[in-house]
Design brief:
34 strands; alpha+beta; Rossmann fold; six-stranded mixed β-sheet; Nucleotidyltransferase, domain 5; 708 residues
Length: 708
């Protein structure tokens, strides 16, 4: 840990349904490679973990007494001495955040049905966590940090609302945390940031490792918590950011829903009235019963049974109320082959254990299937499971079986604290004075104007309307890119700087695993032979290997067509080679053409960027199906190239790459709309005359959406 008394710290706090915890890191810690985090450790005589039970104990005057394991220990002692009703004991306090109308006076119910305002309870918990953090830092560094050195990130469930965010902010304010030192993050987002930053993980329960999430990769994050399951699909962009592909999907099933099934099982076997009386009159034994199951539930294996010890008080209560022994009550249970009772032990066989998990797992599988049914994730291959419940072997086995062997199921070693670590990454990303974050740097290798449109963060961007009618990408299919550039090297009309566009395009598309072919400075005859060879080889013979075809042509030109090193060729002639009738094996797959050139005869203008070329006017709209034709400039206008300066290259190509590197989650036509916005509004491109801007345009016959 850094020892500067001016060191800034980010603190991530995760209030879970069953377990809660915090993590922190200083600016120096986070700048390490890999970053260094401190995760709080919680202990008692029997336990040691990175999260504490979500339990808080207050006295009769509503003063804070204890949290986590210590709260459990002290409350157990009060149960033994029978003075527990003088205290407030809250468990699973997170559930109040799922209340769509949660506010400061929303009530929260304790273990013995007493009420307090949720705001007061949360304020005391946050005050405790703040004090605990400062004590931990002092113990580690010997320095007493000040409040203005701490920046807190509180996570809330995706199913929470603006009301939940305001509730936490208000509680933190009551706990004397400065509003400028608080940010609220949605759990699926921070979990995804953790997953994106993974360097090594375990796959399918094996010991082998996988690489970090790569640029362009889509990945499903299943956050299996205590009270809720969140499922999202994100994509890592070329610029290192993450964007949502599928809106959040989830359900109120998690580890605690299995606990509920266990209590329902006991109520069915021994009687609802027995269980209610047992909880009311034998609080300590009831709590011990629940704790036993919680422990067994977390470690249960696929072929394991579960054994629960029944207290003498429970055995006596069953006999008193039901006039039957506990053993005989179990024998009358409808699934008596799955469970038996002997020597005050309730033995649930493996078939019975699977039944307890059945409804929760079935609900999870339905949610996963709902997400996978969306065509936008047809190329999804990575499923990452995080959260404490993800480490349950029954759940893991069910997920792997459901998604099949074509997908990688990845469970990080620190799955339980994924949200905590992700909260720290998120927190540092919010700091204005933070340097470029590890794995969040822009991946572009050369300079280009920064994209004005995509500066917004994932949390700021609104989800765009989507459709299931998209061009599907098979898991083993790649995109294909053909780049044809006429630099005219060494000639008077040399297009200085155009090679930089080729290099940038090649880097971008190869990062997305495209097969890229480049040709430069060839004659019309050579170009025609190239187009025919590319078509016959890749769109006919190997059509099953590719899901899309992109062709980008950059050159000078005139009214008669695109200029080659010998002769001219029209855009119609180029597209003609790839018509559906000539590429039948590629039928139904998209073909996209970019023509980067002027669309009028160039007139040199002293002091302005170099003019590229003219494109001829097309007499008729191309009747190819699944074809998109894009011109860098509108009809009658010019396209521009920056030959030198702080950035180099074609205005259109550089604007396209700048937008696309952070927009893989939206379709190509939406990307092109944003490119037009960049060309019109970004001051870097406002170099072509007064009150003028360059504007691209498209001709489309696409019937579906196409994603890069």
């Amino acid at each position: 840990m850094a020892e500067s008394d001016q060191e800034k710290y980010v603190v991530g706090i995760d209030f879970g349904t069953a377990y809660s915890g915090y993590a922190y890191a200083s600016s120096t810690d986070f700048g390490n490679d890999p970053p260094t985090y401190y995760i709080a450790e919680w202990k008692d005589d029997k336990h040691a973990s990175k999260k504490a039970p979500s339990t808080v104990l207050l006295d009769g005057m509503k003063n804070f007494v204890a949290f986590g394991y210590e709260a459990e220990r002290q409350y157990s002692e009060h149960l033994e001495s029978d003075d527990h009703r003088q205290y407030y004991y809250f468990t699973q306090f997170k559930m109040v955040l799922y209340n769509q109308l949660v506010r400061s006076n929303t009530p929260i119910i304790d273990f013995t049905e007493k009420q307090m305002e949720a705001m007061e309870v949360y304020t005391k918990i946050i005050q405790y966590f703040k004090s605990h953090v400062k004590g931990s830092i002092k113990k580690k560094t010997g320095i007493a940090v000040k409040d203005d050195q701490l920046f807190f990130v509180f996570t809330i469930p995706a199913a929470g609302t603006d009301a939940a965010e305001k509730f936490i902010q208000e509680a933190a304010k009551h706990a004397e945390i400065m509003s400028t030192h608080i940010t609220i993050a949605v759990e699926p987002i921070v979990a995804s940031m953790f997953c994106k930053a993974l360097r090594t993980t375990k796959r399918d329960g094996a010991s082998n490792s996988s690489s970090t999430i790569e640029a362009g990769m889509k990945y499903m994050v299943i956050d299996l918590g205590g009270g809720y399951t969140d499922i999202t699909v994100h994509q890592k962009q070329i610029n290192g950011s993450i964007q949502e592909i599928i809106p959040h999907c989830g359900n109120p099933y998690g580890g605690t829903s299995v606990d509920e099934e266990f209590l329902k099982l006991l109520a069915e076997i021994f009687g609802k009235n027995v269980m209610e009386e047992f909880k009311r009159s034998q609080n300590e034994d009831f709590k011990d019963l629940c704790d036993q199951f919680e422990f067994k539930k977390r470690i249960v294996k696929t072929e394991m049974s579960i054994t629960i010890s029944l207290s003498s008080s429970f055995m006596e209560l069953v006999l008193k109320v039901r006039n039957i022994s506990a053993d005989d009550a179990v024998k009358k249970y409808r699934y008596k082959n799955e469970i038996y009772c002997s020597n005050q032990r309730l033995n649930i066989l493996k078939s019975g254990v699977k039944r307890l998990f059945g409804e929760t797992i079935e609900s999870l599988m339905k949610s996963i299937e709902h997400v996978l049914s969306d065509a936008k994730v047809s190329d999804l291959v990575n499923v990452i499971m995080v959260g404490g419940f993800s480490q349950n072997e029954l759940v893991e086995e069910a997920v792997r079986k459901h998604v099949g062997t074509s997908m990688n199921v990845i469970i990080p070693e620190e799955a339980e604290i994924a949200v905590l670590k992700g909260a720290l990454i998120y927190g540092f990303s919010q700091q204005k004075d933070t340097r470029i974050l590890p794995d969040l740097e822009r991946m572009q290798l050369t300079k280009r104007p920064p994209c004005e449109f995509s500066k917004h963060s994932l949390t700021d961007k609104k989800n765009r309307s989507t459709t299931k009618e998209v061009y599907k990408k098979g898991k083993d299919e790649r995109g294909f890119l053909l780049v044809i550039n006429f630099e005219f090297a060494g000639r008077k009309d040399e297009r200085t700087g155009s090679q930089k566009d080729v290099d940038d395009l090649k880097t971008f598309f190869e990062t997305l695993k495209y097969h890229v072919e480049c040709r430069s400075d060839i004659s019309k005859e050579e170009l025609e032979e190239c187009l025919k060879d590319i078509r016959d080889t890749y769109l006919i013979a190997d059509a099953d290997k590719y899901y899309s075809f992109f062709c980008i042509v950059m050159s000078h030109g005139n009214a008669e067509g695109i200029k080659t090193c010998k002769g001219t060729i029209t855009t119609d002639e180029i597209v003609e080679y790839f018509k559906t009738s000539k590429t039948k094996p590629f039928k139904g797959k998209p073909k996209v053409f970019f023509f980067d050139m002027c669309r009028e005869k160039p007139k040199p203008i002293i002091g302005e960027p170099e003019v590229l070329s003219n494109a001829p006017e097309s007499d008729s709209f191309h009747d190819d199906s699944d074809t998109l034709i894009v011109y860098a400039a509108t009809e009658g206008n010019r396209s521009y190239l920056m030959p030198s300066g702080k950035w180099i290259g074609s205005f259109f190509i550089q604007a396209f790459l700048s937008v696309a590197e952070g927009s893989l989650h939206i379709d190509v036509e939406d990307i092109l709309r944003d490119v037009r916005r960049e060309l019109a509004n970004n001051s870097e491109y406002a170099r072509i005359g007064k009150d003028k801007c360059m504007l691209s345009e498209s001709e489309t016959r696409l019937s579906k959406k196409i994603y890069l």
